[in-house]
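Office hours follow-up: a student asked to see two folded examples consecutively, so here they are.
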Amino acid sequence: MTSTTSATTYPDVYFEDVVIGAEMRSASHVVNAEDIGSFCGLTRDHHPLHTDAAYARSRGFPGVIAHGLFGVALMEGLKTEMKIYENSSIASLGWDRVRFLQPVVAGDEVHVVFRFTEKRMSARGGRGVVTEALQLINQCGDSVIEAVHTALVLCRPADTAP
């Protein structure tokens, strides 16, 4: 069974609410071998680094490691649990500069720290493009994955106050 500390939720963040440089932190999640195995089944990637602890140890890891893309997906999930874009999200526009700095090993407790780095209005009215710099941080305080994410979000409806 995986454990997740309760997420800090934030009020909906609309385009106008984004403050460049503002930073947020997600709840923590303990990654276990079952999580990694489920990702193997979902993606059809059953490489022994992700399924066989002895094999992973023979390659210098302390046990099975998560797929890099598992970590990226988890970053998005932990951020989603914060509910910052609960009513304002339109779409993810992409992930850039993704770097796998250290392995995520079964048993690691991770959380996301992200910072708003850019924003601009979209060519289509009523929405804007927001860029976030994200880090997946382990229990030792090490950044294990870094990435830049771009999202399309709604502008605040006229009838809602921040």
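And the second, which I mentioned at the end of office hours:
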Amino acid sequence: MIATICLALLYLASALLAWFDLRRGIIPNWVNLAIAVIGLARAAILDGWTAALGAACEGAVIGAIVWLLRRLYFKLRKFHGLGLGDVKLLAASGIWIGVAGVPVQLLVASLAALAAAGVMQLAGQTMTRQTSLPFGPFLALGLLVALALQQHGWIN
């Protein structure tokens, strides 16, 4: 019952995140915080406080690594390729799917974004290297897919 409620809240938060990022180009902090808090509550209720602490640590490490990669990219290219909202979403995602799930999340998100860019190109919209495409909705999709794969035992 608790797992189902938490999953439903994650779906709702993911839908809100996608809507905000597509409409406004930002991911509100409160949405990322909600995803993180729901994940921590789920871990604490289902697996205990030790598991919740471990999940929080994994999320923090993932967030720190992605933030450092974002800084490095900026130093090399002189523009941000990833917004801070995306970094925070990856940190919150780490609470749900851990270090093992984030590569799957990133793969699904990247392939979905590439497919969306291809469809936009085919629809007549000019796509260049400078064309901005909100990545949050694709990261949210990747989170949900990675979580489903974990729940079915396909990834640990």
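Two things to take away from it. The CA atoms of residues 47 and 139 lie 25 Å apart. The chain has a mean pLDDT of 95.
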